[in-house]
Amino acid sequence: MITEEDFVKFDSTNKVISIKDLSIGWDRFVYLFETANNKYILKKSKDAPEALSTEVHARAMITDASIPFARTFFYDGALLVEEYVEGRHMTQDEPSCVYRELGASVGKLHEIGGTGFGPLEAPGKGRYSTEKEAAENYLDFDEPYFKENPVINTTDVKGIIEKHKHIFDSKESILIHDDLFNENIIVREGKLAAIIDFADAMMGAREQELGLYLSLIHISEPTRPLYISYAVFCLKKKKKKKKNKKK
Question: Model pTM?
Fold first, then answer.
C-alpha cells in the first residue's frame, strides 16, 4: 500500500487531506492523494517494478503539447507521482469528436520513433534489436500477466508466434501504448482529457497496436466506435504514407 510517509518523499510541505485506493491491476498499487492545493496519483510496484520505469520512459518521449497525457512529477525508482487528470473513464457513447481526438492523439504517438523493439529500456530504446526477436521473447517480458490470467494457454501463444514469426519484419520502431482501453482514456466535458497508464508502452510497429483493436472489433466488441475510429485513422495514415512513397 501507499501511505503519507510515501507522499512526504515528494512533498513535505502540503498536508494530505484524503487518500483513496484506486488499485485495480495486479502489478501496481495506485492511490489518489488530495491536498489543499492539488490532487496527485501515486504508484508503487507490487510484482513488476519495470512498469513504473516504463511509464516514465514513455512520457519522456512525448514532447508534442497537443497529445493529452498525465505528466510525471516525481520518480525515485520505487515511487511514481503523476498528474491527476479530472474527468471520467471513456464510454462507448461519447460524441464523435472524442473518437476523432483519440485517433489523432494516438496517431501522433505513433509518429514518435526510436530504436529497437519491445519493452522500453530507456526513452526511445526497445530491449530487442528486431521485431522478430521481441515477438519470440514476448512471453518472457509479459510473464506476470500470463500468470495472472490462467485462462490464456501460453503453449498456444508460443505456437502462434512460432508459426507466424516471419511476419514480424518491421523496420519502423515507434512508441505504442499497448493498453488503450476505456479505463485508460479520460474524458472531460465532451473532450478527450488524457491518455493515461503507459505501463505497457513499448517500441513496436503500428500494426501491433492496430491489430489488437481490429481483433476487438471483429471478435468481442463489434459495435464500439472507439476502436473503429482509431483503426480507420491508422489505416488512413498508412495509406497516405504508401501514396507518398509512390510519388
Answer: 0.81
Please report, as a single letter, which amino acid is at residue 9: K
On whether the CB atoms of residues 37 and 20 are closer than 8 A, the answer is no
Q: What would the pLDDT profile of 122-137 be if each residue is shown by its tens digit?
A: 999 999 999 989 888 8
Single-letter amino acid code for the residue at 37: N
Q: Per-residue pLDDT tens for 88-145?
A: 999 878 888 888 898 889 889 999 999 999 999 999 999 999 998 988 887 665 655 5
DSSP H/E element including 186: strand 185-188
Q: Which residues of 178-202 are buried (b: 16+ CB within 10 A; e: fewer)?
A: bbbbeebbbbeeeebbbbbbbbbbb
Q: 214: closest CA among 200, 195, 228? A: 228
User: By the 8 A CB rule, do 43 and 79 touch?
Assistant: yes
